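Action item from last meeting closed. Structure (235 res):
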């Protein structure tokens, strides 16, 4: 069955481009040109992914995202934003969006992100056999990774992480001390294969993760930056 993508965007020319390219890739599309219609279609038609513009009539994208998550829906949400302001992206991720893409975007990058986010949900729905070498629990100093309960503890306290933040720190902990570039993290944690374009989402997620994990986010002791190369977990 074809995967269904809901496009919530009030600029008709952008909707047309998205519909054309998604249909070409084998997706079924639904369109909404304002926030309230987008929310209603999201709840009624259970799409596999939502492309959500931020500036919308009726209800903005952040309100739609918040209402969707409050209803208990976990449909992947990819925010499309023309705004360069970091706070909107951070707020979007905080409200439960899975990722964002900034206008003007390349169609190739957008399709890669749509595909990766739908695949991630499929992987969670049908978990792969865990390899024998993967440990269920890894304790590194004050940090404990518990794969079975998908949680991270610091000094015995469970941290309140989003799914993406958990996946990122889990990946770093499983390779302690190894430096990963933003591109590598996009491929391994975000499931973006090959070309990924904008990798700043990694920096946003790292910053948010540090606020939750570090004693002093300005002086990280766990999630470290190797200047010019990327990030690593300090074991
Ligand atoms: Ca708009």
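Sequence:
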């Amino acid at each position: 069955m074809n995967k269904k993508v809901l496009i919530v965007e009030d600029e008709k020319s952008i909707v047309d481009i998205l519909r054309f390219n998604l249909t070409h890739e084998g997706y079924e599309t639904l369109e909404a040109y304002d926030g309230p219609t987008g929310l209603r279609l999201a709840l009624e038609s259970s799409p596999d992914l939502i492309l959500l513009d931020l500036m919308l009539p009726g209800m903005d994208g952040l309100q739609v995202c918040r209402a969707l998550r409050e209803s208990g829906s976990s449909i992947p949400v990819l925010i499309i934003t023309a705004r360069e302001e970091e706070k909107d992206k951070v707020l979007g991720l905080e409200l439960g969006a899975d990722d964002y893409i900034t206008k003007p975007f390349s169609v190739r990058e957008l399709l890669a992100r749509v595909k990766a986010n739908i695949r991630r949900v499929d992987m969670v729905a049908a978990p792969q056999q865990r390899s024998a070498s993967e440990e269920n629990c890894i304790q590194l100093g004050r940090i404990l990774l518990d794969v079975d309960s998908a949680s991270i503890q610091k000094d015995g306290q469970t941290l309140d992480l989003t799914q993406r933040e958990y996946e990122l720190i889990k990946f770093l902990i499983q390779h302690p001390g190894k430096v990963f570039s933003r591109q590598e993290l996009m491929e391994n944690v975000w499931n973006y294969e090959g070309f990924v374009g904008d990798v700043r989402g990694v920096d946003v997620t790292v910053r948010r993760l540090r606020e939750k994990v570090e004693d002093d986010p300005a002086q990280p002791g766990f999630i470290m930056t190797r200047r010019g190369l990327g990030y690593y977990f300090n074991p």
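Note appended to the action item: The longest strand covers residues 4-8.
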